[in-house]
Design goal:
Distance between the termini: 35 Å
Oligomer: single chain
Radius of gyration: 21 Å
Strand content: 15-25%
Shape: globular
Strand order of the largest sheet: 2-10-9-8-5-3-4
Structural class: alpha/beta
Number of helices: 10
Bound molecules: 4'-deoxy-4'-aminopyridoxal-5'-phosphate
Helix content: 25-40%
Number of strands: 14
Order of helices and strands: EHHEHEHEEEEEEEHHHHEEHEEH
């Protein structure tokens, strides 16, 4: 068996030891004689998994009792809809930062429900970037404010989060648990699981209980945050296997330490940005002060060379480097589980490719 270096933006590489453990436990989880996929979500064996997954998140994010950890099907995209459905009342306004494609997607869904104020818009800026504090126009009395902590496609990342009077909600899909942050700055954070946490299809949501309670009561049961809080994400059958994988990856992360992971992530990204900056051939696409530590985006002199770069990289086991179809270019996604050696291999490949074509 040989594993390649998988630079995919998501679903993305998971820690090998978690995959190995899942493999070893596939047929007989913990002496139960069955797979986690086959057992009752109300039984004792699964309950322990569910509880550990939540407890690991609580430890990693240093959550106080006023926050709840919930697991919601439908990925981050359903959150784009659930947030305004729950919190954007008829006469209210919600503030949204449009920092790229994902911010724009969130706005599009919110506009189907109610009134949106775009607090700043830098979606189309080249180089790609996040808005600066002085550019943000918040609405007095807004129902909430929404940001995207890391724009996966453009490769721009908030290094310092804005402070808002309104409850702040962040889509952290592509940098969740890649660095420490203070939960007190947020009323809610969420992320699709398929980058730093586990399989796709589920969102991890951390929500302040008072916010969940304030949500629109007239919604269908499965669309209310209060249902997930009150029923411990067990109102219906939860995505048990995804939660199990999240439990394993968060256990792995606790062992490594979030601070250590952050340091390693910064170092990994810095190696790639250094290689880009040292060359006239490669050109970074994000403004240096907002460069993402998770998604490193760059271009070559021509699209033909970019295609050739991807094709040759794939042949030597460096896969998933093609930029998002909406923007082109190249993107190296290097989430928590992406190995340091893979970054070194890409740096070497870049130097070698430039020698031949630069
Ligand atoms: N937000 C961000 C920042 C993302 O990167 C993604 C997926 N790439 C999404 C939202 C959408 O996630 P999902 O596919 O789980 O709905």
């Amino acid at each position: 068996m040989s594993r390649i270096y998988n630079f995919s933006a998501g679903p993305a590489v998971l820690p090998v030891e978690c995959l190995e453990q899942a493999r070893d436990e596939m047929l007989d989880y913990n002496g139960s004689g069955m797979s986690v996929m086959e057992m009752s979500h109300r039984g004792k064996v699964y309950s322990a998994i569910h509880e550990e997954a939540k407890a690991n998140i609580r430890k990693l994010m240093k959550l106080t009792d006023d926050y709840e950890v919930i697991f919601v099907q439908g990925g981050a995209s359903l959150q784009f809809a659930m947030i305004p459905m729950n919190f954007l009342g008829k006469d209210a306004v919600a503030d949204y930062v449009c920092s790229g494609n994902w911010g724009a997607q969130a706005i599009k869904q919110a506009r189907l429900i109610g009134q949106v104020n775009v607090a700043a818009d830098c979606e189309k800026d080249i180089p790609t970037r996040m808005p600066r504090p002085e550019e943000l126009n918040w609405t007095k009395g807004a129902a909430y404010a929404h940001i995207t902590s890391n724009e996966t496609i453009s490769g721009a990342q908030f290094k310092v989060f804005p402070k808002t009077e309104a409850p702040l909600i962040a889509d952290m899909s592509s940098d969740i648990l890649s660095r420490p942050f203070d939960i007190k700055d947020f009323a809610m954070i969420y992320g699709g699981a398929q980058k730093n946490l586990g399989p796709a299809g589920m969102a991890l949501v951390v929500i302040r209980k008072d916010l969940a309670e304030r949500g629109n009561k007239a919604l269908p049961t499965m669309l209310k945050y209060s249902t997930f809080v009150e029923k411990d994400s067990l109102y219906n059958t939860p995505p048990c296997y995804s939660i199990y994988m999240l439990m394993l990856t968060t256990r792995w992360l606790l062992k490594f330490g979030l601070e250590n992971m952050w340091r390693q992530n910064v170092e990994k990204a810095a190696k790639l940005y250094k290689a880009i900056d040292a060359s006239e051939f490669y050109r970074g696409t994000a403004l240096p002060e907002f460069r993402s530590d998770m998604n490193v985006t760059f271009r070559l002199p021509t699209e033909e060379l970019e295609a050739q770069f991807c094709a040759e990289a794939t042949k030597v086991g460096l896969s998933g480097l093609k930029g998002h179809r909406s923007v082109g270019g190249l993107r190296a996604s290097i989430y928590n589980a992406f190995p340091v050696e893979g970054v070194d291999a890409l740096v070497d490949f870049m130097a070698e490719f430039e020698k031949r074509f630069g």
